[in-house]
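Standup notes
- DV: blocked on the single-chain target, sequence here:
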Amino acid sequence: MALNYNKAEFEISFGTISQLVESTVPELVFAGRSNVGKSSLLNKLFNRKSLARVSSEPGKTATINFYRVEDVRFVDLPGYGFAKKPGSEKRRWADLIESYFASGRNVRLVVQLVDMRHAPSEDDKIMINYLQQTDVPFLIALTKADKLKKTAREVQRAALTGILSELGVGQFLEVSSATGEGIEALKAAIEDALPEQV
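- DV (later): unblocked, structure below
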């Protein structure tokens, strides 16, 4: 089904799992390490400058943020793996993310973001493995593709193809919030994951 992304609006955010609203509509989840570009990508999808809160400071999104587009929710999970946060805060984030997935939500697709300039981190690998083990449908989106020059990008694409293949991932999308590259392909993947009638 085609979504009208221009109708996107911020719905609600939660810092603890006990605050989560019931899952009543299909949910599309954006996950990834801190500063990988989740909020920027959501803004690009929604064709808005700052609907999703963007920060240059890694680890800023410490809540689960929900956005509504018609009868679908887009879910911005807190970024993981930011080293400077104290252990208790990291545990809270891990519990929040794990509890979100364990609470029987109507997750249609997880868009797992990985910075194209770098190999997947250990946290990325753990998250990919978790999604595979729990049979949650997911798609790898390589962000910040525009930051690499042509030759460097080809080299990195080949390297990531090998690494992701070893992790059991055969396909990925290259996206850029700056240029809009890959956005239409991402929208198509999202719409394919949704039921005909929502």
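- Follow-up: The domain at 5-193 is CATH 3.40.50.300 (Rossmann fold).
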